[in-house]
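Sample entry as discussed:
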Amino acid sequence: MDTNNSEATTSGETTTVSGDQGEQWQLHLQLESRQRIVTKIMDTLKRHLPVHSQEGLNELRMVAVRFEEKIYAIATNQSDYLRRISLKMLSLENQPRTVCIAAKRKRVMAP
């Protein structure tokens, strides 16, 4: 049986999550948890990308939200979701600061 459930995204939009067995984990992940993860992503990005204005901070938040939503959409379960985000954040931590700045200019934040 396939059921559809509405769910709020970290950007405030509403999406539909099907009742497929592989997507049931998404129903149990609270919006507050996703927002905390976006905040942690932002903290990591701020350490590596210079932000000197409120506009830059807003743009950084949009990047973090889009990244989290992409991972949320493609992850097969909660462990996969957390693993993918952790690996990306670790790869950012291990990159020299100049590489991160160049990546931001190219808008590279692929999962």
